[in-house]
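Lay summary. Proteins are chains of building blocks that fold into shapes, and those shapes determine what they do. In this project we predict the shape from the chain. Here is one chain we studied, written as its sequence of building blocks.
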Amino acid sequence: MAKLFTSSSPHLGSTASTRKIMLDVIISLLPAAAASIVFFGYRAAMLIGICVLTCVVSEYFSRIIMKREQTIGDLSAVVTGLLLALNLPATLHPLMAAFGSIVAIVVVKQMFGGIGMNFVNPALAARIVLMVSFPAAMTNWMPSKLSGVDAVTSATPLAEGTSFSYLELLLGNHGGSMGETCAVALILGGLYLILRKVIAPTIPVVYIGTAAVLSLLLGLDPLEQVLSGGLLLGAIFMATDYTTSPITKWGKVIYAVGCGVLTILIRTFAEVPEGVSFSILIMNILTPLIENTTTPRAFGESKEGK
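And here is the predicted shape, written in a compact code that computers can read:
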């Protein structure tokens, strides 16, 4: 007699598997990864390799130590390594990148039960840990190889007193984290994910739209704000994380609006130039509350009984 297994809802029939979804995410990140290597050279390739390898190895050994079923085959650790690497400056010391990868996998992901159990995005949480632990190293931007600038460090578009053309912002010919500079590569990756139905456009569109509108209201250049920093990288690839974003229709809208508002407010009024990581992390924490508030009541259920 066949055994019956039960699991928590939702129960959706689909041919998609975690491995297939993660493979699509990896493919979508390849343009940004390739652009980072073109702009920042061998250091970008080295950091990507270190982050991916450390994430996979960390997951492998942590699953053994915790006596859990091995999950490196689902490719989620590869995705975490790629996302973390693309959120780092090309000048970062390899050991710091490896430390961040261990934090992402062991502390943020595996200590909370593994894939689907973490309450915040592992790559974002690791980036914030690195920013707090090594603030100077995490803001040491390397100029693009194609810029012709012979300098140790370079300013980002969000740095005070800097000015870049829209074309430079689109193509990524400026300083910044490795994966956030080339807007074209990120947009191509986002379109791929939407066409493959890996993500819905709701969160990225609402997030970007909210940031643009608030920028306009505050007297900022909306296009510059959208194309600068990690906004596109965050809105497309990290705010849409299945585990840490709401599943309800209006929950997604509220979540994305919160991300957009917090991003611009932090950029404008806080002491840090970039607010994407912090805004998504805050909204990740609020996701259970948002889902609880926006989940429709079952037919016949009274409001008082909710």
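What the prediction tells us: Residues 42-65 form the longest helix (24 residues).
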